[in-house]
User: Which sequence fits this backbone?
């Protein structure tokens, strides 16, 4: 029994990211489209399965036509449906799987900012210029009004700290995985238009080339590597 417990402990430690032992600083709550970032669309349940979409297809999803940076039309309302290859719209619940690169605590709004990639990158298998990722975010549960969603995002954040960060908060600049970790993520499809067009986002050498996010995240789990895109995992 002791040997079994040691093996389990070692397996968990092998996933732990580089993290600060100190609590990370943040301001919060946020401002830009904040009511939409901390809620789900009418009729969408926090415990729903989400529409399964492969990560490469999600990363290739076109931008909504005519939407501008800090577009005043959509500060308090979701972007309406438009024709696209996936038949999705902002506000849909989506599930995808990919390689977890890092988790950070956003200084401005206290969100957990998570980068999920097509490539299995780690502290030693570093990102390359051609890499891409989607940004998914889990707000602080006390910033979320709906009780079911607040419970879910709280569970997601606790799961990340317990399973991946040895109980610590993620760093402000990003806690990078030491070993390849495949994750399944369910969240609201959200277009973060509060950025300059053409701006690449991302931390620790990995950029995101899309303004589409999953925000807020409703479910997050470590999953077998077979669920993730084929990659030179290390």
Assistant:
């Amino acid at each position: 029994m002791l040997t079994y417990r040691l093996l389990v402990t070692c397996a968990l430690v092998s996933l732990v990211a580089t993290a600060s032992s100190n609590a990370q600083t943040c301001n919060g709550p946020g401002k830009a489209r904040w009511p939409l970032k901390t809620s789900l669309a009418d009729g969408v349940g926090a415990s729903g399965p989400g529409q399964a979409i492969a990560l490469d297809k999600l990363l290739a999803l076109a931008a909504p036509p005519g939407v501008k940076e800090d577009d005043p039309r959509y500060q308090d309302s979701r972007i309406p449906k438009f024709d696209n290859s996936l038949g999705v719209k902002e506000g849909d619940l989506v599930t995808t799987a990919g390689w977890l690169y890092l988790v950070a605590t956003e200084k401005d709004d206290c969100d957990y900012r998570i980068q999920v990639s097509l490539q299995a990158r780690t502290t030693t298998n570093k990102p390359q210029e051609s890499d891409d990722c989607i940004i998914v975010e889990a707000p602080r549960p006390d910033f979320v009004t709906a009780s079911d969603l607040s419970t879910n995002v709280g569970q997601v954040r606790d799961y990340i700290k317990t399973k991946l960060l040895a109980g610590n908060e993620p760093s402000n600049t990003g806690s990078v995985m030491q070993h390849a970790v495949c994750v399944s993520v369910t969240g609201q499809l959200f277009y973060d238009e509060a950025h300059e067009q053409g701006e690449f986002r991302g931390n620790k050498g990995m950029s995101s080339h899309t303004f589409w996010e999953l925000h807020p995240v409703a479910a997050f789990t470590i999953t077998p590597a077979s669920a993730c895109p084929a990659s030179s995992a290390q």
Q: What stands out?
A: The mean pLDDT is 88. The helical segments are 2-13, 34-37, 55-59, 147-164. Strands lie at 51-52, 93-105, 112-117, 133-138, 175-176, 182-191, 212-222.
